């Protein structure tokens, strides 16, 4: 069971990367609204990070499945489905010509995903601390 804290640490790093990517996208849309970015800059910035975000979330989901954390897998499955659905329909990239029509919807979607990842961060950090405490205070490893 000594590998469990390391596994939760990997989950934490993946989650922090997802929080960072979504926060970056949300700030980029906010900068577009405040007229600090033009639509071309926004679309080039967002389109460079959207596919790595989807792949990272997919790896996150698969890692939960492969390690047997079924409840966590079921928790991260709906955003994975949402990402996959957007990717399959070709709606994952930001279009330069249509960005002002969809800025509020895209910003709201990023904010919801950001909130989801922050809640997931709390769950993961709690599980990490519990696994560390269980590894340190395991009765079988104490030898008097």
TrEMBL record:
<keyword id="KW-1133">Transmembrane helix</keyword>
<feature type="transmembrane region" description="Helical">
    <location>
        <begin position="7"/>
        <end position="27"/>
    </location>
</feature>
<dbReference type="GO" id="GO:0016192">
    <property type="term" value="P:vesicle-mediated transport"/>
</dbReference>
<protein>
    <recommendedName>
        <fullName>Cornichon family protein</fullName>
    </recommendedName>
</protein>
<keyword id="KW-0472">Membrane</keyword>
<feature type="transmembrane region" description="Helical">
    <location>
        <begin position="114"/>
        <end position="137"/>
    </location>
</feature>
<comment type="similarity">
    <text>Belongs to the cornichon family.</text>
</comment>
<dbReference type="GO" id="GO:0016020">
    <property type="term" value="C:membrane"/>
</dbReference>
<dbReference type="InterPro" id="IPR003377">
    <property type="entry name" value="Cornichon"/>
</dbReference>
<dbReference type="Pfam" id="PF03311">
    <property type="entry name" value="Cornichon"/>
</dbReference>
<keyword id="KW-0812">Transmembrane</keyword>
<feature type="transmembrane region" description="Helical">
    <location>
        <begin position="54"/>
        <end position="77"/>
    </location>
</feature>
